[in-house]
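User: Fold this; tokens only.

Assistant: Input:
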Amino acid sequence: MRIVFMGTPDFAAASLRKLIDEKYDIAAVFTQPDKPRNRGMQMSFSPVKQLAVDNDIPVYQPTKLRDGTASEIIRSLNPDILVVVAYGRILPDDMLSIAKYGAINVHASLLPKYRGAAPIQWAVLNGDKVTGVSTMYLASEMDTGDVIYTAETEIGEFETSGELFDRLMVMGAELLHKTLTDIEAGTAPRTPQNHADASYVTMLDKSLSPIDWSKTPREIVKWVYGLQPWPVATMQLGSDTFKVYAAAYTETETDKAPGSIVSAGKNGIEIACAGGQTVLITELQAPGKKRMKAADYLLGHPIKVED
């Protein structure tokens, strides 16, 4: 099967690596334009471009998709199918029908849930027990196409978004291979999405970082792990903003107001939250310092707990 692959970040590179390993005929790769890196403004390849270059696969990096040029390039490559994984751009309608089998996508959620950006992080932030990956045919509107296959996995109670990302990246690559195999064999299913069940999620930003202590312990714990590796949850201690990397449940009950420190010692910093419950902060990072256990921080910076 002759493929034009379109993708940009690590998540996409895992799928491209799988296609290379399975000896697919990859006619070309389309990826986002190079971006300046660090203060030296050196240009940085996307993970997909680097992998393509390392394997002598032609690379295209158009700044526009709707002027017809990219579509003409794809037509000249005569692909059987377009494979799109986290490309970062919406394909114009004319591009979807160029290839014999159309265009398919790998999406990191169980569609129609979590259409849009950052589905992995929002699955953790929302406290979901299960998530997964989907393969689908691309349609005019984002993430609305017919689903081909899905694969589910449980989310660990203390699993970060970054850890889940790494697992779904591999699952997505495996599911893509199965999908392509069955499309070529003519046995791949095609199930329209129930749009009434659809939900949409957006990109994360730093405005999400401050922990809301009026939430339940589980909501706070999932917030801490869902915002890793970026933008990371934060809390205030005095006038300083600390990054929070680990939190745990407790059996403590308190009549203190949410956000009040209940205890601070060898186990960490216990803070009041919703319903007279508490949550234990066990790993943090002070401004200008390294990430460390909360107990270790307290050895040099004891906190006086008010009655």
